[in-house]
Design goal:
With 111 residues, this protein is an all-beta fold. The protein contains no helices and eleven strands. Strands 2, 4, 5, 6, 9, 10 and 11 form a seven-stranded mixed β-sheet that branches. A four-stranded antiparallel β-sheet has the order 1-3-8-7, with no helix packed on it. A hairpin with a 6-residue loop joins strand 5 and strand 6. The chain is globular, with a radius of gyration of 13 Å.
Length: 111
């Protein structure tokens, strides 16, 4: 089982990025999936969660209205669209299912 994130990078305040999480080794179609992030020097926090059908999502309060989680079950891929990025969004972003984690992708937002 393998989760691999991509799409991170460096942007300025107000910019956008789209993260992807390619999943192999299990079928995500029946699974709730999660995005987490760990800012430098801080604890990891859940950014959001999406239900197996994609019809239900929840978000960290500070990203509501700016971040959108989506999924492509046929492609076994999870996405995180991030808009209006702020310096406090700087973190390593990882996708997750249960005890399975990706290696993470760095997002850096400069002011």
């Amino acid at each position: 089982v393998h989760l691999e994130e991509s799409g991170g990078g460096s942007v300025q305040t107000g910019g956008s990025l789209r993260l992807s999480c390619a999943v192999s080794g299990f079928d995500i179609a029946s699974a709730f999936m999660y995005w987490y992030r760990q800012p430098p020097g801080k604890e990891r926090e859940m950014v959001g969660r999406i239900s197996s059908t994609g019809k239900s999502t929840i978000y960290l309060e500070s990203v509501k209205g700016r971040f959108t989680i989506s999924r492509d079950n046929a492609g076994n891929t999870l996405y995180l669209q991030m808009t209006n990025l702020k310096p406090e969004d700087t973190a390593v972003y990882s996708c997750n299912r249960g005890s399975i984690w990706g290696q993470g992708t760095q997002v850096t937002v400069s002011s």
